[in-house]
Amino acid sequence: MTAELVRGQNHPLPDTRLELRVSAGHPVVAGATLGDEQGRVAGAEWIAHPGAPVRPGVEVPGEVAAEHRIAVDLAALPDAVHRLSLLLALPQGGGGPARFGTAAAPFVTVADPAGGAVATYTITGLDQESAVVALELYRRQGVWKVRAVGQGYEGGLADLLADQGAPAAADLAAAVLHAAAPAPASTGAPVPPPLVPETAPADPSSSTTTISYAHPGRRPAAPPAAPATGRDAGAGDVPRRPAEPPAPAAESRPAPVAGDATGWTMDERLYNQVWGMFEDLARTVAAYRSARDFADNRLDRAIDQVLADPSSRVGGAGDAARAAARATHEELMDRAQEVLDRDLAQLTAESEVVEPALPVAYARWDNPAWHAYRSPEEPPMAVRLGDLHLPERSALRVPFLVRLPLERGLWVDSGPGRTSAAGLLDEAELRRLALDSAVAHTARLLAAHPAGALTVHVIDPAGGGAAAFAPLVETGVLAAPPARGAAGVTDVLAQLTERVDLLQMAVRGDASEDLPPGFDPARQLLVVHDFPHGFDDRAVTRLRYLADEGPSVGVHLLMVADRADAAAYGPVLDPLWRSLLRLTPVPDDHLADPWVGHAWTYEPPTIPPGSAVLWQVLGQVGEARRRNFG
User: Fold this and answer.
1) pLDDT over 90 percentage in the chain
2) Per-residue H/E/C for 550-585
3) Which of 161, 196, 207, 544 is the least crowded, having the fewest Cβ atoms under 10 Å away?
4) SS3 96
């Protein structure tokens, strides 16, 4: 079974010949340093980088890319080498992200000679850093292990190399980045990078949250460029691409194929394809909106010019000029619509092929694949938490996939919301829908994990969610009955905070393999209903601690709450709400893409009316749990 590492965790290596795979979603420089017993790098000859890609026992790619494969032969390393560190750095220039905090989290896989994944690590928690030690392979008592590091450096590659004791670190870093710099193109203009909002909003209930996932391997079709306006683009303009040749006619385009993206498995290829469709749709609509804005601005300027000239303000000349301006405007709008319709038709065709091919973790609840569900042997890359669409084609839905393990907790907002859909429902109905949505999310997370790999706890202080929690209780998938009252809240929170403390101490002390006998190795999910009922100040502090520190050691949070109910705490809870990914029980425009910043309509997952699929899936989960653990 593949080990999903968290920061600081180690795992034994089954072989000395390995392949390190990097999937970043954006161009990065990949390199490796060789260190002695203290991790010190003796000199430039102990660094593998694009300018010197081959060193004893390691070979790195010779170019900047979003995906890398690094070949490692630990048996071929010099005797003095006890540590090999995998480095990732953002290249200078080229218009890419300047810091890892504005880009997708890099994902690293350690594979054996047969290509099987030994361990994976998603490098989360980065912000201002432009260089990071992703992981290290180290020798301890004659045995090689891998450790997830994730140590970033705001000072970039120079600070990283200096921290490893390399002499003349600044000069070495400059040489590495210079060797990785792409040669200037002889013709053509550079394509500007996607626009990625740099920070999440301070108030997730009233503004959009950026979805900071970028697909690792798909190069989207460039949207049509709007004609130049003769002025610099303003802060709100969509970055414009250079004009490109017309796309081939729709009938000459190849038929879409499910799973034609890059990836080692069909699961990974479909994941990459879905996020590629997401990016394509974002950029296509951005180009359409930009073209319409250009047409409107051009019409306004033409009319202003007519009105500013007294000789043409009235009479036949003025009427002709205005008619010509409107005709040009209509032509530009028709052209923009034609290109949009063409691209949306292609994406719709791709969606119609991809949707039926999705595995259960990515599939809608009405997909027949759920009827053949069995507990998986390995967790998937992601789970589907709903759908996303834009107003230009609301029927074209893109699956909203969230990577596993969860990098942040989930919050199903049971508040009144700001949309017309929420306005049509009373408070009690919204709260019921929010709890039903949370149960569906919980069922999907359970179904995505191997039997016993996710342990679920429920806090329901007043017992108001008994009916909604019935599928979880009656199928036996919970660790214990839902906790009731203040005492139940205290017991569950104390148990999980102690678990986080223990795991963090084990990671810091490199003692992950020395946990107490009988320790449950499964990831933990805490579902909290009716917050803050039953919570005192100490319980609130523990909940915030779990939200902040839990994900790094496999303890995750799913809140069902109305923020207004906790208004008495004031700004104390603001960090809690910001740390959670807000979801809604009704359609809401609160998520933004990381490329052009559209406000996307989020559609929560719904169980088909009258369907027993939720009970069926949870029954399979409960049966597998009892079969494996009694």
Assistant:
1) 55
2) CHHHCEEEEEEECHHHHHHHHHHHHHHHHHEEEECC
3) 207
4) coil
